[in-house]
Design a protein that fits this description.
heterotrimer, A alpha/beta, B mainly alpha, C mainly alpha, B: mainly alpha, 12 helices, 74% helix, globular, C: mainly alpha, two-stranded antiparallel ribbon
Chain lengths: 281, 282, 325
Amino acid sequence: MTVNTPPADAPLLSARDVKVHLRVHGRVVKAVDGVDIEVHPGQCVGIVGESGSGKSTLGRAMTRLLPNVEIAELSGSVRFCGEDVLAMTPERIRALRRHRGLSMVFQDPLSYLNPTLRIDRQLGEALRHLPDRAVVREQSAELLRQVGLDDTRRILRLYPHELSGGMRQRVLIAMALAPDPQILVADEPTTALDATVQYQVIQTLRRLNKERNLAMLVITHDLGMVAELCDRVYVMNGGKVVESADVFALFDAPQNAYTASLLAAARRLHQTKALGVGPAT
Amino acid sequence: MALDLVRRLFATRFGGIGVVILLAVSILSILAPFFASSGPEDIGSPSMLPPSWQHPFGTDSLGRDVRSVLLYAGRSSLTIGFCAAAMAFLIGGTIGALAGYFRGPLAAVLLRVTDLFHTLPAIIIVLFSVSLLGASFWLQVAAVALAIWPIEARLVYGQFITLSEREFVLAARAAGLSTGHLIFREILPNALPTVIVQVALDASTAILIEAGLGFLGLSDPTVPSWGEMLNRGQEFLELAWWMSVFPGMAICIAVLGFNLFADGVTEMFNPRATAAPPKLEG
Amino acid sequence: MVRHIAGHLAQALLLLIVVVVAIFCLLQLIPGDPVQAMVGDMPVPPALRAALEQRFRLNEPFLDRLFGYLSNVAHGDLGYSMNYRRPVFDILAERFPRTLLLAGIGYAFGILIGIAIGIHSAVTPHRGVDRAWSSLMLIGYAMPTFWVGQLLVLTFSIQLGWLPTQGMGPMISRAEGIDWLIERATYLVLPVATYTILETTRVARFMRASVAETLEQGYIVTARQKGLTRHEVIMGHVVRNSVLPVITVMGYSFGTAMGGAVLLETVFSYPGMGSLMVEAVRARDTQVIVGVVIVVACSVVVMNIIVDLLYAWLDPRIRVAAAAR
């Protein structure tokens, strides 16, 4: 099993002119229409956009986990450590997912965990590269601690429905960390969670990024999360990237009109929340 | 609007085939005198002849042309199928609607009664009714309806429960529309596709049950039916296979017709239900 | 968990009592002479009439009769069949195990094969295979079960002569031990095969739909994301979660299997409870008819309880919640 590390300046994960056209109800929908993305080792990149901008589709195309929709066209190149992800054999992509490759976490932790299996069993499935059961148990506990869950012995014996939403999402992140990936792709990781829990998960991700030098690709519509976590931001609208910049530059001086309107809307919402007017936090 | 629905039905995988089969079978049966070479009572031919040009499906033990009897028998089998399903829908639908709309203790009682009938196998209920009340044609229809109404009741009840929570019903309620209006103009039209599917499936079940009854020799002896033909065929299985094979095929085709139609309607209104499942590789 | 079970048992018992009471009430509604109805198609001598009236308390008020009937049933007294000249309970005790053997084995095989076909149909990457299985199952479902039996008899017994056409065993048999077992088995092959086909077609269709739904779930994507092979995903995640909904209808389909017994035992002249029912209907032997209905209701209810327990054991959401109470 070859473990690739890219040459010093090359991106860890890159997408070049990626197009994903889907066939929905007989019509072709250009979910992703010619997108270029780059993530360097240790970097945290955010992709923001509203619903329907194609950001989730892009993320799932890059990890080869597209949902069950008919694909009219899937073109472009997605390179991980120089290898073409879209052209890989199933065995190769599986090998990558099992060790030092790409991992992904999704939006709704409840449906992404198997309700009939205990946490230790589900976590253990991601740790099959370890030699024996004792090591697996140890490593499972360690992974849970890394995502901020301390009561490891109890949690491992529980079923998903016995955990809170925030705990479930952190278990999923732990599962994604198990194969020691080089990059973590997170698709709306906090959207289904309560506000306080959102904050905790964002802090967990931030810590993982800094401490493990784990590259991240965060897909979200939450600009606050992007401001907290990311180094670089891509803004998507209608299947295309309309702006890409360093995070501070983006927030201070957006170049594109759409980006500006997104930021303005977020500020208005933030202000009304702060004033106590409108939806409570 | 109706034409548009028909076109959509034919666009589904098998819905069109189902409708065609049903139409063909119905026409052949209704117009039996035109398609049959002899009447159902004609015992003129020599008995137990294997299939030949003159008698494509052979003749039976009484000397009747099997093909002709088959066509006439289709009338009763199909009628029972349609009528029993309709009756089951009326009985079951009413009970389900009452339980679904009024809820509370009434619903609890009605659901228990539904469970009661649901527990017993259909053929047992039918035999029990027949033994108590006899087996004239319409009593048969009633007996079969008695066996299948619980399914309709459950279905309609379920539809009422899910639909009554939906926004458009809440909106209508808020607008102050009457109960009758609510049931007939808001809930029922939305439940219609599911109901149509279930009624079609019930008709196919009714035909199978009726065939069973006929096979046991307990159906109305004055009316030829496919099941009854199979009953006769059982006696002569070794000597005249054609007496059993062709009526069975007829039943099979009719049931397939209803099922394919039901699948087609399901696909029309719920395309995800029949889409290909996700792949697990790559 | 114990309370969960007890709850189900109580409900089942209640259902049974209601069934018996309902039957009793229905019987009262038959027009005509109740004694004649009990006896069937035979003339009733006066002494017998007096005895029956006394035994079944026919001249007493309704509620007394009802309770008398219920207590009889509870004690295993299901009446006496004029047709067979034996207590109904004895006849049932003889015939029911035979039907259970046939229907039970066919039902069990059918479920296992149906589950396998359903899974294969839904997970196979070749859509053609899926369509082929689905068409086959649909055609099998459309064929009346007794007709399937007739076709099997035509092919394997009459044309090919491999297997006997009917009955439970030969008229005279000198086989011993293993030979006897094999000889008996050959008589069971075709009937069991017919039951199996019946159950397989139903289960396969339902299972395929269940698997298709499971495959859409998020945790399957998670499993793929972990780098599991197709086989590992199916074994570890798909099977268990897809089987659960199928289990919920197992009780009902057992009832169908018992119902099928009525028809199949006629095709194969198998002396079980099904053919008993048919004979009783022909002879208007009400006591036997009622007895059969009660036994069938009991077996379906028992099966439902077993299924409920099985489901509760397999689905941790119920098991854990019940234990926590």
